[in-house]
Amino acid sequence: MITGICRIEMIIFEASSLKEKRMVIKSLIGRIRSRFNVSISEVGLHELWGRSEIGFACVSTETKHANQMLDSIISFVEKDGRVEMINQEIEYVSLFGE
Length: 98
Fold this sequence. Notes:
Strand content: 35-45%
CATH class: Alpha Beta
CATH superfamily: TT1725-like
Number of domains: 1
Largest sheet: 4 strands, antiparallel
Number of helices: 2
Helix content: 25-40%
CATH topology: Alpha-Beta Plaits
Number of strands: 4
C-alpha cells in the first residue's frame, strides 16, 4: 500500500478578509474532494487572510497511480484563477513492507 501526501502553500487573490479566504478555500477543498475522492483539509496559515496551506492524501497499490493522482490535483489547483501556488511538498509512504 502506497500513501501519497501533498502539502500546497498558496496565495489567495480574491480574499480581503478571513471570511472571504474561508469561502475560497472551502470551495476549492469541496471541488477537489468531490472530483478526486481524496482526504483534504486546510492545514496551516489559518489566520492569514491572503495565504493558505492545504494538505491532501491518497492511498493506492502503486506509486505511479498515487503520483498521477497528486499531479492531477496540483494541476487542478494551478488552473483555479482564485489562487496561486507558491510551494508544494510531496511525499510517498510505503506501508506494510511493500
